[in-house]
Amino acid sequence: MIRPSMQTSVLTRATALRASRLSVIALALCAASAQSSFAAEAHTGGGVMVTPGGRAVNTGLRTAVLSATDTSGDVDAANAALLAANVALGRVPGFTAVPTKEVGAAFGKIILSTRIEGTDIVNIGKATKAKRALTVSVSPGEINAGSASYRAVVELFDTATGGLVGRGDGTFTATADAAADAKPANGTAAQALTNRALSGAVYQAINELNKPASFDGIVVSIPGAYQARISLGERNGVRNGARVEYVRNGDVVAFGSVIDLGTAEAIATVAPESAAPMVSVNTEVRTVANPTASRAGKSAREKDDAEFSKFERDFGISAAIAGIAYLVAVNN
Description:
The protein is α+β, with helices and mostly antiparallel strands. The chain has two domains: 199 residues, Rossmann fold; 82 residues, Thrombin, subunit H (Beta Barrel), CATH 2.40.10. The chain is built from five helices and 15 strands. The strands form three sheets. Strands 1, 2, 5, 6, 7, 8 and 9 form a seven-stranded mixed sheet that branches. Strands 10-11-14-13-12-15 form a six-stranded antiparallel β-barrel. It has a two-stranded antiparallel sheet with strand order 3-4. Strand 13 and strand 14 form a beta hairpin. The longest helix has 32 residues. The chain is flat. The relative contact order is 0.11.
């Protein structure tokens, strides 16, 4: 096993060196050495919000890219995938990339075996204050003079538990005409084509992490004007702020969003107001968009927990003040 270094970090088993297809893992420590010769795909969108004052605000979950694997054994491609993953995290809503220097420093504090385990993910999360950790694997497809294709698979982990919480799979084919503007200054057209295919596949795989699940339910009651209580809640995977559609006989009759989320039910708005008479008990409802964990509002359970924590804190402070006052009175 080759230990991570500031120049090139490759992690592999000795036996894999003799295999026909070599899996090369380029650790995040080497990302700083990946230079501009890699032409990253210029995708739009991202986890940055611009306010009227022109101030850019990061709005995504802090995510550390831990490793990139190229299944063909191409170290340069693995390094390129590592860079592409960090670039994509800055452009896909819901995420913001931890600087590679911070991730590299965190790797220097752990004992790494032949693979990244759950305990490694937790330790790196603590060291970098990352909420999520990500790994990426890329595989080249057909590459010729006119086109190149790559497949990328990304896995997302919760750094609190080390558990897998997301997976994205993307395939991208770049053509010679589309790659013309992505040609590196010191590279070739073939390299530009391959780089564009690789970066496009990584972007699509990371973007796939935001693909919302669709949930179907019914309206169980009408708690107030232009509102509906629906049979979908936190237990189903719905988040506060989820967008919903109300359906009658297969036709969408109204829209809304979840504003109060319970364990098994939620309250959603009904819009436009003119459609309110069309929404009644047993009207079908389905989710069409679910905010990412970093953008979702608090559920009723989370609000209750926060209120209880505030009560405990205030009660403790009050009790401490009363105790101090009693001791002062007794001593006097």
